[in-house]
Amino acid sequence: LEECTFISELATSALFRKAGIGRKLILKGFGWSQKQGFKYATMRTAENGSNSLGLLIRQGAVVLPFVQNM
Fold first, then answer.
1. Whole-prediction pTM value?
2. What is the three-class DSSP state of 7?
3. Is 56 exposed, middle or buried (0-12, 13-18, 19+ CB in 10 A)?
């Protein structure tokens, strides 16, 4: 776990969705993680069908089996 950073609860207001803000936040978070020396990033999202899950997959994320209380 020392090689892993955790991003929790990313959301954008409905007024600003589809403006690229979520993507920019994710990329900033991943960039920061790399600069800190982390090899992996994990992010908790809503279940299948959420906008954030689709966004993460488009950025190259891999969906892992559900892990509760991580």
1. 0.68
2. strand
3. buried
Q: Is the pLDDT of residue 6 over 90?
A: no
Say if CB 33 and CB 3 are below 8 A apart: no
Q: Tell me: the pLDDT tens digits for 7-40?
A: 777 778 889 888 989 889 888 888 898 899 998 8
Contact 40, 3 (CB under 8 A): yes
Q: CA–CA distance from 58 to each of 22, 23, 53, 55, 62 (Å)?
A: 12, 9, 9, 5, 10
Q: What span, in angstroms and rounded, lies between the C-alpha atoms of 14 and 24?
A: 16
Q: 11 by DSSP, 3-state: which? A: coil
